[in-house]
Design goal:
Helices cover about 40% and strands about 15% of the residues. The chain has about 525 residues and is α/β, with parallel strands linked by helices. The protein starts with 10 loop residues before the first helix and ends in a 7-residue tail after the last helix. The longest helix is centred in the N-terminal third of the chain and has 24 residues.
Length: about 525
Amino acid sequence: RVMRGDVPGTVEEVYRDLLARAPENKMQPRLEPMRRVLALLGDPQHAAPVIHLTGTNGKTSTARMVEAVLRAYGLRTGRYTSPHLQRVTERISIDGAPVADETFVRVWGEILPIVQTVDAELEAAGEVPLTYFEAVTTLGFAVFADEPVEVIVLEVGLGGVTDATNVADAVVSVVTPISLDHTDLLGETEAEIAEEKAGIIKPGGALVSAAQERDAAQVLLEAAQAADVPFRFEGVEFGVLERSLAVGGQQVSVRGLAAEYRDLFLPLLGEHQAQNLAVAVAALEMFLGGGERPLDEELLREGLSQVTSPGRLEVLRTAPTLIVDAAHNPDGVRATARAVQEAFGFTRLSLVVGILQEKDAPGMLAALYRAFGDDVEDLAVTQSSSARAIPAGELARMAVDAGWPEDDVYATESVPDALEWAVGRAEALETSADELASGTGGGVLVLGSITLAAEVRTLVGEPRHAGPVTVAARGLDPADLLDAVGLADADEDDLDPEILELLEDRDDAGARRRPEEDR
């Protein structure tokens, strides 16, 4: 705790002051206040080269892949992403970890007089003071300059043209898949949304884009041509060659801009994550070698082995398997559904859904019904603690309108109650040792918003075992599966008696167990 007069002395106090500003869903379509405050701070946004990411889905996962490989190359990285899951410091990462509390508080205290000066100027001009997102973005740039970092991986908050992050000039601008989201602010078609996101493309940089709907791709192409920068599109110059499921993730072969990279292990699930990987590889090739030099394959593999994406198809527990995902629009829901159906073989799946007011809740619920309606009889609708959460009763009516049978829908304002109900429904199915080991049997999927994912992670805790138990490995011997996913090292109290019996039958069971004193 560091106190200097009325300057906040803890992360919680800084966060309290930030939350007193205009909220994140009230971003201002402006850049001048950001340019003003950063100019007074010495333009820290130019302290290191930038890889700038925008798009509707996949930004954070792609950013994490890019960052992990840059770290494998020995570069000191700063990553700025939003929103956070549990603590605001997650938004500003140094070398893959949230910024230290002391640094977060100290740098905020150092820049606060400048921030307050700009606040006063804006109020005098009849404008809104720096918003929550503008202030956090300013703090992020200041932290990156203070560390200092050698490369900044920067995620857009909303859109691109007037997003607070767009004061930076990227060496590589990355556009992940564009779909309909925030239509009230960004436009009602993919092309209109692409116009906003194309704003991060700057002269002197380069564009790397995921595969896009035709009109959106044309907008990005024209923006790149207007800025006179090279452009590379998934499906044209690079892409996924093949993929197969693996224990704890998937094997992916990618055609990059300068080479092919075969059988890369990605510890994330879903076809969409393989596509994110292809985009990340192309962005890295463009950043490190202008798109003309292959990546060091050993460093690429090393970096990818360290990739995590909390809250994205994340398995928090087993027996029954509990998965959280931050899908918050219809396209995200469809991608999540495909990944769950591909990687898990649930005999019974229960859903827990909570959605924020500005999202396409009817579209999301309809997408869920089309994906799971024939197989899922258990849908719990709830609301996170966010003031923007759709009330559970209203969400239940939307679910019925979307096709869900009323008898299958359980509504509760309490997230713990929704989770307990869904887990109870999944546990009602008797699960054998083989089913437990392979991720079949009963399962619970929580999705709809990052705030819901965060609350469930807080309730349940982070994963205790090494990786997701996926149906990808069902062809292996169940005992080998236990080793692959880390269950063979678990405390006996954590394991089903049938699992214990399975372990005891192994010739080398004793060698595989940790000594009791190390448990």
